[in-house]
Write a structure and sequence with these properties.
The protein is of the alpha+beta class. Helix content is 43%, strand content 20%. It is built from 4 helices and 3 strands; from the N terminus they run αβααββα. The chain has a 3-stranded antiparallel sheet. Strand 2 and strand 3 form a beta hairpin. The radius of gyration is 16 Å and the shape is globular.
Length: 83
């Protein structure tokens, strides 16, 4: 997807974002439903967790949160290295 590289560059220092914030950060001015869908799918594919949160009075948005890094002790168990 041509949106993948600009989206990854935008997300480098982010802990959470909305689709609209990501589009703004990538310089997309005319955000249509197809582009919203693609950004949301990429975030989900990369493990970002989504939830609906109230962002203003009478307004809610889907907020995507960066996945937690895998801890070293969990990674060892997942790799089959049980000591």
């Amino acid at each position: 997807d041509p949106l993948a590289l600009p989206l990854k560059a935008y997300l480098v220092d982010k802990q959470e974002t909305t689709i609209s914030q990501a589009a703004d950060g990538m310089g997309i001015e005319d955000l249509d439903w197809s582009t919203r869908y693609r950004i949301g799918k990429l975030l989900a594919l990369w493990g970002w967790q989504q939830r609906t949160r109230k962002v203003a009075k009478h307004r809610a948005a889907r907020v995507f949160t960066r996945p937690e890094p895998l801890r070293a002790d969990v990674a060892e168990i997942d790799a089959g290295d049980v000591s």
